Recover the amino acids of this structure.
């Protein structure tokens, strides 16, 4: 798609629509899959001119709790008051 050939024809419009559909499918597959797929990343870069972004930095340091033990206990105190479940008969 150089942009200077058949710019205002039905063929050109169809090509642009399919290009957008394929790009959106690639993006959806990249975003909605567990892990990474090197092939999809390559296609996104080569065919659609995309670039990888820098990873987002975490707001807190690993291992340092953001809540005190008392805050966590208060948050889950209702779970301790649930009735005991009956054992299934085997």
């Amino acid at each position: 798609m150089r942009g200077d050939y058949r710019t205002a024809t039905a063929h050109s419009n169809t090509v642009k629509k399919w290009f957008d559909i394929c790009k959106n499918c690639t993006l959806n597959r990249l975003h909605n899959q567990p892990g990474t797929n090197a092939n999809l990343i390559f296609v996104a870069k080569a065919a659609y001119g995309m670039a990888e972004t820098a990873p987002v930095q975490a707001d807190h340091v690993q291992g340092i709790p953001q809540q005190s033990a008392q805050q966590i206990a208060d948050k889950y105190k209702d779970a301790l008051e649930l009735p005991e479940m009956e054992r299934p008969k085997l």
